């Protein structure tokens, strides 16, 4: 079963709660803005800084996280239900899916090629993708969901053609 166990202090200390389904507002369960460590079993979970899946998303794949990058800031949790087994995203050099394109099926550091800081739109065929502003999973990041067709990064992501790294979320182990 897919689940996330969240703890109020680092190193899995303090009060904890276990969830197996989406939680749009952790404040309603008296556990908002207090998560400092967590454990994930199965599919990845997305933690959001604002209720109702708004704000900055943070992805947590299967594993243990004795500390999180933004402790005491998560207000919602969402289980990733999508098939993550065969990811694919198409990147386009210009807005509206124009210009040169590149199909990506695995983690890629664009800093080593033509498309670094040149992507202006994308189409996600399969999987859930993390898009990063800087090489090596650095800087501002966002999520791209299956079926998403983002025609222009400037108003949609405020990346301003600065995508440098991307990776698909990994599926959890089958139980």
UniProtKB/TrEMBL annotation:
Keyword Repeat: yes
Coiled coil: none
Keyword Repeat among record annotations: yes
Family classification: Belongs to the beta/gamma-crystallin family.
One Gene Ontology term from the biological process aspect of the record: visual perception
Organism: Cochlearius cochlearius
Record GO terms (molecular function): structural constituent of eye lens
Entry protein name: EDSP protein
């Amino acid at each position: 079963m897919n689940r996330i166990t969240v703890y109020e202090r680092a190193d899995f200390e303090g009060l904890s709660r276990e969830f197996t389904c989406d939680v749009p507002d952790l404040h309603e369960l008296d556990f908002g803005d207090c998560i400092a460590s967590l454990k994930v079993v199965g599919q990845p979970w997305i933690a959001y800084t604002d209720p109702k899946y708004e704000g900055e998303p943070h992805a947590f794949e299967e594993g243990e996280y004795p500390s999180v990058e933004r402790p005491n800031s998560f207000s919602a949790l969402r289980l990733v239900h999508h098939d993550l087994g065969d990811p694919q995203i198409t990147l386009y050099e210009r807005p509206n899916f124009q210009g040169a394109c590149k199909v990506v099926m695995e983690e890629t550091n664009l800093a080593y090629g033509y498309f670094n800081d040149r992507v202006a739109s994308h189409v996600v065929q399969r999987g859930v993708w993390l898009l990063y502003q800087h090489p090596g999973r650095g800087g501002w990041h966002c999520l791209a969901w299956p079926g998403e067709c983002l025609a222009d990064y400037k108003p949609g992501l405020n990346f301003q053609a600065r995508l440098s790294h991307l990776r698909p979320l990994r599926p959890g182990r089958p139980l």
